[in-house]
Design goal:
Largest sheet of chain B: 4 strands, mixed
Strand order of the largest sheet of chain B: 2-1-3-4
Structural class of chain B: alpha+beta
Number of domains of chain A: 3
CATH superfamily of the largest domain in chain B: Glutaredoxin
CATH architecture of the largest domain in chain A: 3-Layer(aba) Sandwich
Structural class of chain A: alpha/beta
Number of domains of chain B: 2
Number of strands of chain A: 13
Radius of gyration of chain A: 22 Å
Order of helices and strands of chain B: HHHHEHHEEEH
Oligomer: heterodimer
Largest interface: A-B, 76 and 57 residues
Shape of chain A: globular
Helix content of chain A: 40-55%
CATH topology of the largest domain in chain B: Glutaredoxin
Bound molecules: flavin mononucleotide, FE2/S2 (inorganic) cluster
Chain lengths: ~425, ~180
């Protein structure tokens, strides 16, 4: 097996890593202690040098995001750790929250020092009961030891950290919806600009980063931005946590160096396709990206640029693998149900269009497809993309359009059967679909 | 007319309010606290939350309908939520849903006659690597088959374990004895 760098999962299998004593015995909080001696602006420079890009999906350069925060605006600066992790196929943040929460807290402290922020919040999805209790306990331990609170490590720096539970809403992972939710409202995204760095939580400058992004900070500050930059590939530095699921022999979270060949990842890390079957398709970035067929993944590498050039996206690396037996009509219907259910309802194209698309895919799946259904879906998608406040609408159409484009025969066959009145019985992926919502 | 919950609940909300730059941020906690105490989010819960946080009742209602983890109706003591999203679906989640549907004979979200059980299908729970899976109250049960799920449900029926996330100290309930709280590693 290929040797990858281990920045994030180095200690993940140590049974006591979630405790402060365990984490400290392996060096936790030694970097923040040093960072507090460094000028905050220099910390930001180091993060810029590292080239790290946000791990939450959009891949925005973290150092640049931090440098947008105005200094001395007279308002407090808030730091939010996005642990909403609801993108289908993604479970990497959960692994860190459960098994190395102190790495996350230390990363947040480094970010807080760089941004001169005295208050931060981990917004964790409501369903994550166990990760919540583990992270909460870790925060309490850090307070008890004086790593949070007043005069951290004898400095003048004070920092309070809160863990906030969501209550079940995919959209709250979108940063502005998250802030609305954190202000005690429905999680409906805001118009941008203004961007959170200028006007975020309670109109104060706010930085929102993903759990994985922040968990990289201790390494970057300890070893220098250059050390991080030297890992991975040019425009995608460092490692990436990949949540691998679906029809593979060894599902799980893997830390790979950016730029690793996808085919090799499936064969080596994932242990190949299960039951001796062949690969049909991969959704590499969480469900909201373009699907890739088996031939398309032959030569592609796993990093932001390579996947963009290959017509898909690394996203948050929720890597879903589908074998040759997968019925693509059922697969896309499954996702259509997800997006129809999760639209926040604010923008008409997304709220209505999402349901329309689900209905059309449902009738195709049930042997009632109509001749014009595929162009109709394309038409509805065209009216959603670019016409909504947040990126939910733009991204939900990606799996729809790419699946109908790359697997046209399956849709043709199903609609053809319906037109001829000869529908073959099939075992549905989604047998118990009851049309509710 | 002011509604009062138990001293414990009132104290806990106060503690939460103090954590945030603005009390409104504690709205979601208030609903969790009220839901745990009252069993469901009825008019009393709305009024209590609105009053304590200086929100209008309609805003509170909005939260209850927007977020899926708030319930206006009482659920079963054990609420079984089966993930139906793609990674679970391709590894057989529909068989789990069939299994609970047959076992309980109720509609999704509807409690069984003895009030013990309810179930529903939910979206990706962040456990796709250990699919298919379900969540019972706040506990994940991963790498399931219909047989394994049946064994778990049988044990819960017999042992009536504490599966709740406690509102008192933010800790998990004890769970099912000998059963791991997470199988992600
Ligand atoms: C619909 C939608 C859902 C999102 N869900 C998440 C999420 O669950 N976790 C996350 O970190 N970012 C999510 N994002 C991205 C966030 O808006 C934001 O870009 C990210 O948290 C920034 O952190 P980063 O720069 O460290 O990646 C989502 C975005 C959209 C449009
Ligand atoms: S798809 Fe079921 S947990 Fe993610």
């Amino acid at each position: 097996m290929t040797a990858h760098h281990s920045i994030l999962l180095k200690n993940i299998r140590q049974p006591d890593q979630h405790t402060l004593a365990g984490a400290e015995s392996r060096g936790a909080y030694s970097t923040i202690k040093k960072a507090l001696q460094i000028d905050p602006l220099k910390v930001i420079e180091e993060v810029k040098t590292s080239g790290i890009r946000g791990r939450g999906g959009a891949g925005f350069p973290t150092g640049m995001k931090w440098s947008f925060v105005p200094r001395n605006s007279g308002k407090p600066v808030y730091l939010i750790n996005n642990a909403d992790e609801s993108e289908p196929g993604t479970f990497k943040d959960r692994l860190l929250l459960e098994n190395d929460p102190h790495l996350i807290i230390e990363g947040m402290l480094i970010a807080a020092w760089a941004l001169q922020s005295n208050w931060s919040c981990i917004y964790i999805r409501g369903e994550y009961g166990y990760p919540f209790s583990r992270a909460k306990k870790a925060i309490e331990e850090a307070y008890a030891k004086g790593y949070l609170g007043k005069n951290i490590f004898g400095s003048n720096f004070n920092h309070d950290m809160v863990i906030h539970r969501g209550a079940g809403a995919y959209i709250c992972g979108e940063e502005s919806a998250l802030m609305e939710s954190l202000e005690g409202k429905k999680g409906q995204p805001r118009m941008k600009p203004p961007f959170p760095a200028v006007s975020g939580l309670y109109q104060c400058p706010t930085v929102i980063n993903n759990v994985e992004t922040l968990a990289n900070m201790p390494f970057i500050i300890e070893n220098g931005g250059k050390a991080f930059l030297s890992i991975g590939v040019e425009k995608s530095s460092g490692t990436k946590l990949v949540s691998a699921s679906g029809h593979i022999n060894k599902p799980g979270v893997y830390e790979i160096d950016m730029g690793y060949p996808m085919k090799r990842f499936i064969e080596e890390e994932c242990g190949g396709i299960w039951q001796g079957r062949k690969l049909k398709a991969v959704i590499p970035g969480g469900s909201s990206v373009n699907i890739m067929t088996a031939p398309e993944i032959e030569k592609v590498n796993m990093d932001y640029e390579s996947l963009r050039l290959a017509g898909s996206s690394l996203g948050c690396a929720g890597f879903m693998v589908l074998d040759e037996t997968t019925d693509m009509v059922e697969a896309v219907l499954n996702l259509a149900h997800f997006y129809a259910h999760e639209s926040c309802g604010q923008c008409t194209p997304c709220r209505e269009g999402g349901h329309w698309i689900e209905k059309i895919f449902t009738r195709i799946s049930r042997g009632q497809g109509l001749p014009g259904d595929i162009p109709l879906i394309e038409n509805v998608c065209a009216q959603i993309g670019g016409h909504t406040i947040c990126a939910f609408g733009d991204t939900m159409i990606l799996p729809y359009l790419s699946i109908i484009k790359k697997f046209p025969e399956e849709f043709k066959e199903r609609i053809g059967e319906a037109i001829r009145g000869q529908v073959k019985p099939r075992e549905y992926l989604n047998v118990v679909y009851d049309g509710a919502h | 007319m002011s509604i009062k919950l138990s001293d414990k609940a009132e104290a806990r909300l106060k503690e939460k309010i103090a954590l945030y730059p603005d009390p409104k941020s504690a709205a979601m906690w208030a609903l969790y606290i009220a839901q745990e105490e009252l069993g469901r989010l009825d008019d009393r819960a709305v009024e209590w939350t609105a009053e304590r946080l200086n929100l209008s009742p309609v805003n509170v209602q909005e939260l209850i309908t927007f977020y899926t983890m708030y319930h206006k109706e009482q659920l079963g003591k054990y609420h079984v939520q089966i993930c139906r999203t793609l990674s679970c679906a391709v590894r057989g989640s529909t068989k789990l849903t069939e299994c609970v549907r047959k076992r309980f004979g109720t509609k999704p979200g509807q409690p069984s006659a003895d009030g013990m059980w309810s179930y529903e299908e939910v979206e990706c729970l962040g456990s796709c690597g250990t699919a298919p899976m379900c969540q019972i109250n706040d506990h994940f049960f991963e790498n399931l088959t219909p047989q394994k799920l049946t064994e778990i449900l049988d044990r819960i029926e017999k042992e009536k374990p504490d599966l709740k996330l406690s509102t008192i100290d933010d800790r998990m309930g004890e769970g099912l004895k000998g059963y791991p709280k997470s199988q992600i590693i």
